[in-house]
Amino acid sequence: MNSKFRIFVICIGMAGLLWLINHLNREYTVGVVFNIRYEGLSFAAGQKPDTTIYAEVTGKGFSLIKYYYNKPYIISLNQTDFKSIKRGDSVFLKVLPDNLREAMSESLPTGIRLVEVPNDTITFSVVSFPSREVPINVRLSVLPGAECMISGPVKIIPGVARITGPAEIINRIDSVNTITVEAANVCDTLKKTVKLAPMVSEKVKCNISEVHILIPVSKAVEKTVRLHYNTTHDGDIYEGEVTVKLLMPEEISNADHGLGVTTEVKENALVFKIVNPAGHKILSVSPEFIPLEQ
C-alpha cells in the first residue's frame, strides 16, 4: 500500500512538472512597470514628472519569470529624447515615442520583447536658464616666509567658469570666487586644488566645483634701480632720474626689466608713477615729485 501511494505521488509530481514546463514554454503578454531616470534636466518649481511608466511585454514563461526576479528595470531619458517648446524661462517637453520605445527595449533582457506602450506621452516643463562665462577670482590669505615673496600672478586652471541661472541674477555676477586659500611661512611655489565658494543663489549653477591654482613664491632680494624720465609741460623740459628701491625675485637678473616711470601733474607738481611688473614690490621712490617751474 505504501509503495503504491509513493508511486502515485511521484506520477502526480511528474505530471505537474511536465505541465509546468509545457506552459512555461508558451508565450505570454503581461503588463510591467519601468522606472525612469532623467539625466541633465532641472525641473521647474512644483513640477513632478512621472518616475514610472507602464508597458506590455511578451515572452516565454521562463524569460518572464527571470524578468520578474531581476526587476525593477530602469530607463534613462535626457533632453534629446524630448521635443521641446520654448516658453519664457522654461521649456515644455514631450517625449519622442520612438526614443522611449528604444530605451525600454534596450533595457529588456533577451527573450522579452516590447509590445505596447499605452501612455507614451510623457510631458512636463524644465527650467532652461541662460548661461554666461565669468572669470574665477582666487581669495588669498598667503603669507610668504621671511625674505620670500609672491613673485607673479596666480595661475588658475580653468580660468573661467560657466554659470547658469535666471538672467536677472547672473547678469550681476562678474566673477566666481574660490574659498579662501590660507597658508603661512611659504617660501616655495604653492600648488593647490581649491573648491569654489557657494553661489550667490541656489538658482545659479556652475559647470565646475573646483580649480587648480599655482602661486609662484620665490626668495626675495632688495635692489635699487635708477629710472630716467624726460617730459615737457607748458614748454618747460623736465629731465632727470628717479631712484626706486624694490623687492624682487632673486632669479631675475635684470633689475629694471619691465620697470618704467610715468608722470602726471598734480597741484603744481610733477608726480612720478612707477610702472611695476607683477612680482615686484616697491619699497620707496625718490623723489616722489618735483615742483613745476612757475
Task: Describe what this molecule looks like in 3D.
With 294 residues, this protein is an alpha+beta fold. It folds into three domains: 2-80 and 98-119, no CATH class; 131-215, RNA Polymerase Alpha Subunit, Chain A, domain 2; 221-291, RNA Polymerase Alpha Subunit, Chain A, domain 2. The chain has helices at residues 2-24, 61-70, 97-107, 167-170; strands at residues 27-38, 52-60, 73-77, 82-87, 90-95, 112-116, 123-127, 131-137, 140-144, 148-150, 155-157, 160-164, 176-177, 181-186, 190-195, 205-206, 210-215, 217-233, 236-249, 260-266, 269-275, 281-286, 289-291. Strands 3-1-2-6 form a four-stranded mixed beta sheet. A hairpin with a 2-residue loop joins strand 4 and strand 5 (90-95). The longest helix has 23 residues, at 2-24. It starts with a helix and ends with a strand.
Could you give the order of strands across the largest sheet?
3-1-2-6
Q: What is the end-to-end distance?
A: 141 Å
Tally the structural domains: 3
Count the DSSP helices: 4
What is the CA-atom radius of gyration, in angstroms?
37 Å
Question: Helix and strand string, N-terminal first?
Answer: HEEHEEEHEEEEEEEHEEEEEEEEEEE
Uncertain stretches of 5 or more adjacent residues: none
Per DSSP E runs of 2 or more residues, the count of β-strands stands at: 23
The class by helix and strand makeup works out as: alpha+beta
**Largest sheet geometry:** 4 strands, mixed
The backbone outline, from C-alpha atoms, is elongated
Q: What amount of the residues lies in strands?
A: over 45%
Estimated helix fraction: 10-25%
